[in-house]
Amino acid sequence: MKILNFYIEKRSVNYVVDVDIRGFFDNVDHIWMMEFLKLRISDPNLLRIIGRFLKGGYMEEGKKYNTDKGTPQGGVISPILANVYLHYVLDVWFEKRVRKQCKGQAYIVRYADDFVCCFQSKSEAQQFFHSLKLRLKKFNLEIAEDKTKIIPFGRFAEQNANQQGRNKPATFDFLGFTHYCGKSKQGKFRVKRKSSRKKVQAKLKETKEWLKSNRSKDIHLIMDRFRRSLIGYYNYYCITDNTQNVNNFKDKIEKLLFKWLNRRSQRKSFKWDKFSLFLNKYPLPSPRIKVNIYDLRKEISYIL
């Protein structure tokens, strides 16, 4: 996300192609995968082991399922194989073909099967979108049309939105964050991020179900579980511009605790003032920024 932020803010980016590959991990083609691996691996024994891994299948609810395509769910090397596959299908193709054909600037940022592409020209973004469909089809993949879009995004996006009668520029989601156009304290264009609403709602729903099933457990175990869960959540979502959204998430977690701890018996355990005293005794961690998006010391060599 640091690299994506740099491209949009510091380079000439006016359009973003937000792409979703339909069922990527379930549709990786084994023949193409082995061809890609042979480009860098010459040891036939290692290739044979990987081939067996791909066709080894997986167990679910006591039943074995064979796999003639895709990477096995939960397989230890599945993420690595998926990255190898998309390296040749997307990364190399984009650098060797797409960028060279573009008159304007063009960039790709990918993490596993989640990626966005940035373009200076709208026509080149549209041409890339058409070419991408054909490229993925060649390797037995396809775009999820309902989740893929080309949006105006960048320093001129707000101006274009006003001209078209829209209040705000469009947004896009990447790696669990909604990216939107904002401004710095000095009034300059900035890319800002907040936790994706879809991800937040899914996490709250999961938390509700867990509390509903485990509210009668020892209170020390419940609060320890929530402390550890929130620390993990903060480690991922506490980045530049997102602290307030994470604070709001913590407030919703506290309200869920209040609701379901009051249902441990037929008699209510708390009123809100008593619950506040309870949280003083069993405090939940508070969010603070873990990652500064503008610290590019580790990424600068990649960008150059």
From TrEMBL:
Keywords: Nucleotidyltransferase, RNA-directed DNA polymerase, Transferase. The keyword Cytoplasm does not apply. InterPro entries: DNA/RNA_pol_sf, GrpII_Intron_Splice-Mob/Def, Mat_intron_G2, RT_dom. This is Reverse transcriptase domain-containing protein. Residues 1-179 form the Reverse transcriptase domain. One of its GO terms (molecular function) is RNA-directed DNA polymerase activity. It comes from Neobacillus pocheonensis. The keyword Transferase applies. Signal peptide: none annotated.
